[in-house]
Every structure is written in C-alpha cells, then in structure tokens.
Amino acid sequence: MSRHLDLGCGTQPRNPYQRDELFGIDLRGGDSGPIRRANLALQAIPFDSDSFDSVSAYDFFEHVPRVLPSADGLQTRFPFIELMNEVWRVLKPGGWLYASTPAYPHRAAFQDPTHVNILTTDSHRYFTLPHLTAAMYGFNGVFTERRVQLSKTSARNPAFVAPPAGVWQRLRHAMRVRGGRCSHLIWELEAVKPAPDVPGR
Q: Hey, CA dihedral for 101, 63, 56, 53, is it positive or negative?
C-alpha cells in the first residue's frame, strides 16, 4: 500500500499522486488517526521515518519561519531547514516531495501578512544535489530535482499541476512567466536515501 502525507492540510488532505492511503498534518488535527496535530514550525512530523511514498505542501511553506530565537534568546533556530529535514526523514528512499508556494517576484508572495518565507526559482538548490547549500545551516537530507516550475495557480486548479507538455503548452507557459502572470512555484524533489557522502558535511 502506497502512502501520502499532506502538510497543513486543513480538514481535506490532497493526494497529488493518488496514493492508496492518505494522511495529513494540521494544527486542528488529532493525536492519532489520519490527520495528526502538529505545529511544524516548532515540532517534528509525528510519523515514523521512511513512512511515505510522497509528501505534499500546498500554500504552506510560505508560512514556516526562516529564523526563530531559541527559548533563552541566546541562539537561533531555522524552522524551514528543520522542516525540510523532517520531510526527508519521513519519505521512503526515492519518495517525492510536491510543493506549491507563492513565489518571488509575484505580489501573491508578499500581500498576505502571514507569509514569512518567500522562495525563488533557485531556493531548491539549498536542498538538492549538487549544491546542498542548506547543509551549513543543519540540513542533513539529500534531494534531487525532478521539476522546478513557475505556475499560474488558482483554487480551481487540480491538486497536481502537470508540466507543460506540447510545444504550444510550453510556449504559453513561457509567455505567462515572461508576463509575470505565474504566481506560484512548483517543487518536485526526490529523496535520496541513504544520504551519500557530500564534501563539507
């Protein structure tokens, strides 16, 4: 049985890869059952390692702080780095992360006052080979890039945004990007496990 986990799911988790079993995490979840309660800016994902074939995050990453002071105020934490560690931990080897988030420079990334983590088309390099730039901040996972794509999204769009396929689709997509009409960034990353030896880590 394949399993999927949707982060920040509310009451209705999404299942972009149509896995057999569907689970979610939300502040309004429970202590057990398919939707668990956790504040992922402060807490670990409440599932075992290597539990899921895929994880999704829809309009969620932008709400996870980049930096927080420790309880004593003498140190700092990097909640988004910690969350990416957790996503990597709960994915099975070869598992996929699918994320959709408002992205720079579109105004959708900035207009909501609760958006505190603005990503760009290069942000994934902090978590993927060969760069793994986030290792200097404590990221210990390894992902490879399957797809990074700007996208025009809306509430009417399906749970999974497919990459543009034909010539006309690719041309239309390029025109949307050039015209600044793509508000969201799609990440599809694949978990590499066990993590290979990486120089500098």
A: positive
Q: How many residues does the structure list for the chain?
A: 201
CB neighbour list of residue 199: distance below 8 Å, 6 or more residues apart: none
CATH topology for 3-191 is Rossmann fold (3.40.50)
Identify whether 34 is preceded by a cis peptide bond (ω within 30 of 0).
no
Query: Does 177 score more than 80 pLDDT?
Result: no
Which 3 state secondary structure label does DSSP give 110? coil
Tell me, what amino acid is at 127?
F
- The pTM (predicted TM-score) of the whole model is 0.91
Contact 187, 99 (CB under 8 A): yes
- Of all helices (H) and strands (E), which one includes residue 136? none
Place of tokens 């909640």: 79
Mean pLDDT score of the chain: 90
Tokens of 96: 């996929």
